[in-house]
Amino acid sequence: MRKDFGEKPYLFPQPVLIIGTYNEDGSANAMNAAWGGIAGADEIIIDLSSHKTTDNILLNKAFTVSVGDVEHLAACDYVGLVSAKNEPRKMEKAGFTTTKSAFVNAPVINELPLTLECELVKVIDGCKYLGVIKNVSADECILGEDGTIDPGKLRAISFDPVHHAYLELGEKVGSAFQDGAALK
What we know:
Belongs to the flavoredoxin family. The structure is a single chain. This protein has helices at 52-60, 73-81, 90-94, 151-154, and strands at 14-15, 17-22, 28-33, 36-40, 43-47, 62-67, 98-100, 107-109, 114-124, 128-138, 157-160, 165-168. By secondary structure, the chain is an alpha+beta fold. It has a seven-stranded antiparallel β-sheet with strand order 3-2-6-9-10-5-4. The chain has a three-stranded antiparallel β-sheet with strand order 1-11-12, with no helix packed on it. A two-stranded antiparallel sheet has the order 7-8.
């Protein structure tokens, strides 16, 4: 038996995306966004209502998307609770420092170990920001022995829209493009 919930954004996991932009004075800003994801081999889309961040994306035609992690959970939640319009020291209070991306006009948040550096392609329906990924940067602390990103070391968090909770992504449970071959 199944239970219907109606029209709800109940897709699991929902990544915790921290969107980085520059304000008009050049200072860094960030916000927490749950509605976004990969839209193609080199594209990402984020659904945002009107925010200081959306003004900044339109101004700079660029943004970064960092993945929220367990270590910085409180700071990631904080940048979603507080607007830069009301708190000019938002980044400092979150404990975030930034470095300018070498690929786009947007800040890389130093404390978050995985960042997609994106150029705005277009805005769809007034609220969906489509970006092309110009670079992915990863702190060496999340790289495995093979030199690639190790999700276990990243300790990414996802948003649970049902219970308004953050969940740590789990361990490996299978091998893509292999486990299904047993059913051929």
